Please model this.
Amino acid sequence: GINAETWVQFLYFIGFTPSHMVRPHLKHYQVVGREQPSEKNANPTAFKLEVFAPNFVVAKSRFWKLMNDKNKVKSTHGDTLSVKVIKDRKIAARNYSINLVYYSQLCGYTYMTKEFRDVSKAGAVSQAYNDLASRHRARYTNVEILSVKSIANEQCRRAFVTQFHKEGLSFPILQKKEKVARKDRAIFVKKGTKRAVVQ
Model:
């Protein structure tokens, strides 16, 4: 097989940089909705659910799917009160334990717990969806995230997570960029002159 350095050089050659590899494809949304007020129920209960989706349209769709399954409220008879993105308070590397269930035609419903290391909940859940798609051929629509929680280093059991817990870890700088001097930075240069607008 090829070594790690050759593999990294190949990725750069085809234009696949590490920023593309680690960028999460899902966002963490908080959706609030309720049943439409009626004569039978003038003040319906509002429900708040957290979902992971690529955009707010899919987030609302996932919300109403869960509302239909758990509370028997359809989107045609409901109101979406708010949809907002939840940001982590502090970006730091954490261990995440994800409880999920997915459906497959071969085995039916399967419950499992997975561990991932990431800087955000959205990144950990994105890793979980990619892992399920590759290992179990589970589709996005057939996966339901039950809970996502941060766990301590002592609670981790997976080797690919615990390998980052050692002290004195060091990583190679794969793409070193020198910062351009402020006097050389320019948005544009006028034709026929040496004047430049410095930002």
The first strand starts at residue 27 and ends at 35. The beta strands are 27-35, 46-53, 78-85, 94-104, 108-118, 143-151.
